């Protein structure tokens, strides 16, 4: 009996020794001030509209990298930059990762993305020709950075989370296309991709905070609302009419992985008059709304990263 008891103790001790210890960090709340700080820099005249291949977008990438480093986010590749050539231009996505804490589920990835480039210059208005792109898409970029900060602090995601900021979206989704193809060639197991696009202004007279492109293609909206415990996500007729599912950085990921890859946005252009306009400025952004949207979405991504099985699936074609 004593020998049996001793054997049980040894087995238990061995099991505990080999089971990874997970130190869960505190929950944090993303503030409107920190979002404003990020969007203020990213949409400043100093960055000259963040066009691909310019010093402005290089500076934006350096800023994102430094923020990731300060949070404890690790580079997914050898460095944070996913470099490629765009004709004669040097182009680069910025890609960080927070590895999952579950030995099995960490091999499944959630991609949280946004494009951080813009168009550079636009039609002059009162001698201002810099297209700062506050809503499009400094807000989405700041949202991805805020989520990276949260999960790097919390450290409780069982699945791995990739945080990707794309260049050359404005030139035809070329940055996300490059990264999606590269990850596919590495056989990355992508569970879902949630892309943040223009989240700086709220809708008026709608019963949801944001819409998903490709709403009817998967059960992502349904699951996100269930995870949120409220109607966070709704359907946009404008998005369907103009096929916005195919017009943002979720689409190259869908093409490669045939998984639920969709864009979350609070702007379908019925509530914002300055798309690709030099007046897309920080003064028009509602940072209290934006903070509320991010803080409402974070628990959704948290649940998404921790479910035992892949609950979000594509609907079968009829």
TrEMBL record:
<dbReference type="InterPro" id="IPR007484">
    <property type="entry name" value="Peptidase_M28"/>
</dbReference>
<feature type="domain" description="Peptidase M28">
    <location>
        <begin position="93"/>
        <end position="289"/>
    </location>
</feature>
<dbReference type="Pfam" id="PF04389">
    <property type="entry name" value="Peptidase_M28"/>
</dbReference>
<protein>
    <submittedName>
        <fullName>Peptidase M28-like protein</fullName>
    </submittedName>
</protein>
<dbReference type="InterPro" id="IPR045175">
    <property type="entry name" value="M28_fam"/>
</dbReference>
